[in-house]
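call fold(seq) -> C-alpha cells
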Amino acid sequence: MLFLIAAYNKNIKLTLDFTRFTRHFWYEIRCAWLVHRSATYVRRYKLKGVLVKKYSNSAHRILNIIQIAAPSGGNNPTTTVWANVFGLDAELAKSDPHFVHQKLTLFRAELDLLASAMATTGFSEKLYKPYINNISRTVSVTNIGAAWSSYSSNLGADTILAINFCAEILPDESECDFDSLTEIIDSITKLREQVENSDLHEVTKSFVLSQISIIEKAIQNYPITGVDSIKRAFSEGFSDICSRADNIREEDADIRSKVGEFWVKLRKVGGAAVEADKIVSAVVKLVENGDKLKDGIAGLLQ
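ret:
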C-alpha cells in the first residue's frame, strides 16, 4: 500500500494528496498488495468463515461456484467434481457427462459475459482477464476427463480474490428469492410424480411434463445464469404452448391450470425485471385462460 509520505528538509515540505487518485488506482493497489501478502480469504473480507451467496451479477454467481469447486481435491475426474458442484449424479456423469456439459456450457457463457462486462468498466484487463482465463481452463470440454488435481490450481486464492473484486465493481442485477425458488421446485417435483403416475391422456401428459421440465430447468440454472434463466423459461414455455395448441385437449384444463399456478408463482418470484417482460405476461395470460387456451393464443398472435 501507499502511505502518506511527508518529507521535511529545511525549506521543503512534501505531502501526497490522496484525493488525486481514482478508485481504479486504489483497486489496483489493494489487489496487488493482498495477493502479494497472500492474506487468507476470510482475513481479506472479514467474513469469519461464512460465505454469503449472492446472485446479483455474473461475478457473484461465478464466485459461488468456484468456491465450492476449489476445495475439491484428489485425483477425482474433473467431470465428477463438476457434477457434485452442480448437484448432478456424479456416478452417471462418469459414463455420460452430457448434463455436466450442459451446465458447463452455461457457466462458460457467464465467464464470457463477465469478461465483456468488466471491459466496459475501465479497469485494466490484466487485473481480471488472466483469472477469468484460469477458470475457463477448468471448464474446457477437452479437460473434463482429466484428474481434477491437474486443473484445481487455477482456482487459487488470487483467482478468487480477482473475481471477488469483479463482483463488487459490477452493478447489481435483479435477484430472485432463492428460498421461494426452492419451494417452487419442491412443489413442482411432487406434481411431476403425480402426473407421471396418472392415467392422463398421453398428449396432455406429454404437454404438462414438458412445461414442468421447462420450469425445473429454469430454477436449476438460476445459480449459474441468474434471472435470465427465469426469463428464458417463459420464452420456452410460450413456444411450447403454441407448438402444441392444436393437440391440447380442452377437457384437461384442470391439470393444465395446476401448471399455470407455477408460472404465476415464478413470475412473482422473478420480481420487477421478469414481470415487465411481454413474453412473461403472455404466458401468464394463456395459463389463466383455462379451457380457452387456443382462443388465447389466437388473440395474442393477432
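Residues 54-169 form one domain.
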